[in-house]
Design a protein that fits this description.
By secondary structure, this protein is of the alpha/beta class. It has helices at 26-39, 99-107, 136-139, 146-151, 158-161, 169-176, 198-203, and strands at 4-10, 44-50, 61-64, 85-88, 92-94, 112-113, 127-130, 156-157, 166-168, 183-185. The radius of gyration is 16 Å and the shape is globular.
Length: 215
């Protein structure tokens, strides 16, 4: 069975970083990896786009970010892989089985994005389900705002294909609970490490066993 890519990004905070995204570290990457390892039954490559070579205690592949300066627009760069891909930010908690989301990336025709929880007529990029063949989103990009750029390309909404499986913490879960969510993405203020919620403690954690050192 062909592997899907699970991709994320990690860079040291810089002048472009908001205060709410200055806490990310290698541990966040490993927690994300372990979340997918527990909840994805399809073979996957986990690729972290980085500003410098990191030390991980998991079989995490690294790709050096090409674009400088690094900022939130760098979230377009994983499209260069041109493979079926689940692209998520580090402020993401995997809470349930993700097989249906991964399978879409092999059979779907256009990327799927969540509806913006505050402007549901447009997409946000909290979680991206990307079929192969979309490297042009990276190749044609000239530094535009990353969310505005993806909205210019053909896409559909995760909410319509998989209702309730991918939720915003602030826009959905905080008010209505997890329901049947599989992935919860965070945006802006309030990150997983600041919330002592039982479901975060259960699902946002590193496994202590079966870890393979990789660099």
């Amino acid at each position: 069975m062909e592997e899907i890519v699970v991709a994320t990004l990690l860079w040291d905070p810089n002048e472009h970083s908001h205060d709410f995204s200055r806490s990310y570290s290698e541990e966040w990457v490993e927690k994300l990896f372990d979340g997918f390892r527990r909840n994805l039954n399809r073979p996957f490559d986990f690729v972290c786009f980085v500003d410098r070579v990191r030390r991980f205690n998991r079989p995490i592949k690294q790709a050096l970010l090409e674009r400088r300066p690094i900022d939130y627009g760098s979230c377009i760069e994983p499209y260069k892989l041109n493979r079926p891909m689940i692209l998520v930010g580090l402020d993401t908690v995997v809470v349930g089985n993700c097989d249906p989301l991964a399978d879409y990336c092999f059979r779907g025709k256009v990327p799927l994005y969540p509806r913006d929880p505050y402007r549901p007529r447009i997409a946000c990029n909290g979680v991206s389900l990307v079929p192969a063949g979309y490297s042009h989103i990276w190749e044609r990009w000239n530094g535009e705002n990353d969310m505005e750029w993806i909205r210019r390309h053909p896409h559909e909404f995760i909410d319509d294909h998989f209702p309730g499986l991918v939720l915003s913490y602030k826009g959905h879960v905080k008010k209505k609970g997890l329901g049947g969510a599989r992935i919860v993405y965070f945006h802006g203020k309030e990150k997983p490490h600041e919330l002592g919620l039982p479901w975060i403690r259960e699902h946002w954690r590193c496994e202590s066993e079966n870890s393979t050192a990789a660099s």
